[in-house]
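User: structure tokens for Hydrophobin, please.
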Amino acid sequence: MHLKRPLERRAPHRLLCLYRSTNTQLCSPPLSTMTSRILALVVALLPVLGGAASLAARDTCDGGTGTLLCCDLLASPNDPIVAPILASLGIPASSLDEPVGVTCTPLNSTQAQCPTQRACCTDNDFNGVVALDCTEA
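Assistant: Done. Predicted tokens:
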């Protein structure tokens, strides 16, 4: 017959495990001190890492080139939605290399919020229908 160690010599978490366990459950030891410290560090750094992502939005375009716009869509000139719009304006999609902004409105530093797509575009002479030579802002 196999003798078990007395219960009082087992770790407290093992006593709880013995009390709650069934044949289908497995008990695991509690988190180690190092694991809990690492977890606390990760939780503490989350706001810092999240704040860095919010710094990506700018109020101006790099190098002063282009106009900061809020566009409903920023896509390739050959995109199935963009190409017909360009064709209706007489702009051949094959002549463009950079993304195109669709339905764009200018942004300034007092109105820097854009719920859709922020873009810096160098050619916005199409009454807001499209803006050409855009980069994501």
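User: Anything notable?

Assistant: The chain has two domains: 9-54, 62-136.
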